[in-house]
Specification:
By secondary structure, the chain is of the alpha+beta class. It is built from nine helices and 17 strands. The protein is globular. Residues 173-182 have a biased composition (Basic and acidic residues).
């Protein structure tokens, strides 16, 4: 009862393609370069900016320059203007010295958590209704990716949790949710000799509200390495068991830090679409023009920097925008939030589900071409795209 998870990690440029594989990691920064100007992305008029916002909310396709504003929008909860709430893993240093209302007031902490629970439940209900394609729950210890049925080759709702730690597993035990934790290596087959492959093994987790067990899977390398804080500790939850996971997370006392700079702050919810209690935010974009030496002469090189949580749909929609605006030629360096790279692990062997997805998720707010890409099986393993290039309207990429 084991499933094989393929892992890839290469610095070799891929072959040319009309499409690039879905990348489920979150990018923290994109640096796009081109021989043509990005003037269309600079200094939008007030009307153009407003049109971009409203068309994002209406999920209406529009043309440049409003479309750049539309593609930079994301939704977040909670929101404190003076605190960076993404990324959360490893963010203590950036939060030191920045006070927040949750730090020393337990009553206020409970108020924030109650609101967070309502927002989290709202997002899950949107996902189940196929009005939200996916969303992230970012805690100070781990990240959860919830995906709607039809995405990543799965015909049911899925959730991936990474990294899992001893602290998280202890929290499950303390809450009375962990019935059994069983880990083992391969089954002795020839494939077991391949160090680049990971085995998935089952773990049962019981929710205190529902007696049903969550069908989860732990990734573990065959040599029995310690899993804590490693991508190999990723957990997969499927189907209606994701609702049990929702209840577990809402009731998990270790979900929020009890001390340190992040004490009392609820996990960050990131979504492509609006949800109850969400704040509309935009990625920061700026263009820079430089001159670079090319053999015996200088040439103009233009760059566009985008900073913030760049989610999978955004990477794809921006690539379509750049394809049109830069006449099919550009290069983008992608800076990945490393703990989320493992979300590219394959979870399904099902065949292409694109047509089904476009029909079922047509009202989720994403471009049909982006939906088609996100519907495909994950092929990147625990790697993520580091470099995305387009030449003559064909993509190549490096992991």
């Amino acid at each position: 009862n084991k499933t094989l998870l393929a892992i890839s990690n290469t610095d070799v440029l891929s072959s040319s393609s009309f499409e690039f594989p879905a990348d489920w990691s979150i990018k923290t920064r994109l640096l796009v370069t081109s021989s043509q100007s990005f003037a269309w992305a600079d200094h939008l008029k007030a009307q153009e900016e407003s049109q971009g916002y409203i068309q994002h909310c209406r999920a209406t396709l529009i043309n440049l320059p409003q479309s750049i504003q539309q593609n930079l929008v994301y939704w977040l909860h909670p929101f404190f203007p003076w605190l960076p709430l993404f990324p959360r893993i490893g963010a203590d240093r950036k939060m030191v010295g920045k006070s927040h209302p949750c730090a020393f007031n337990e009553e206020l902490q409970q108020v924030f958590m109650n609101e967070w629970s309502l927002s989290f439940t709202s997002l899950y209900n949107l996902l189940r209704a196929k009005l939200c394609p996916y969303f992230y729950v970012c805690t100070y210890q781990f990240t959860v990716l919830f995906r709607a049925a039809g995405l990543a080759g799965s015909d049911m709702i899925t959730a991936l949790i990474s990294p899992t730690t001893k602290g998280l597993r202890e929290a499950m035990k303390n809450e009375g949710k962990e019935k059994e934790l069983e880990m083992s290596g391969g089954d002795g087959s020839d494939d077991d000799e391949d160090d680049g492959l990971l085995w998935l093994v089952e773990m049962g987790v019981e929710d205190k509200i529902k007696p049903d067990t969550i069908s989860t899977k732990f990734c573990k390398e065959k040599n029995g390495m310690k899993l804590d804080h490693r991508p190999e500790s990723v957990v997969l939850v499927k189907g209606t068991n994701t609702f049990t996971l929702l209840n577990f997370l809402i009731n998990c006392k270790s979900l929020v830090a009890s001390a340190g700079p992040q004490a009392g702050i609820p996990p960050t919810l990131l979504s492509p679409v609006a949800f109850r209690g969400a704040t509309m935010q935009t990625l920061k974009a700026r263009s820079i023009n430089v001159r670079t030496q090319a053999r015996s002469h200088y040439k103009n090189l233009f760059s566009l920097e985008i900073v913030g949580p760049v989610m999978p749909h955004c990477l794809h929609s921006l690539s379509m925008l750049l394809k049109s605006a830069q006449n099919g030629t550009f290069s983008a360096v992608c800076y990945t939030h490393e703990p989320t790279a493992v979300f590219n692990a394959g979870i399904s062997n099902k065949q292409d589900m694109k047509l089904v997805v476009i029909k079922r998720l047509s009202n989720c707010g994403l471009h049909p071409n982006t939906l088609s890409q996100l519907a495909l099986n994950s092929t990147l393993g625990k790697s993520a795209i580091r470099l995305l290039e387009m030449s003559d309207y064909l993509y190549t990429w490096k992991l």
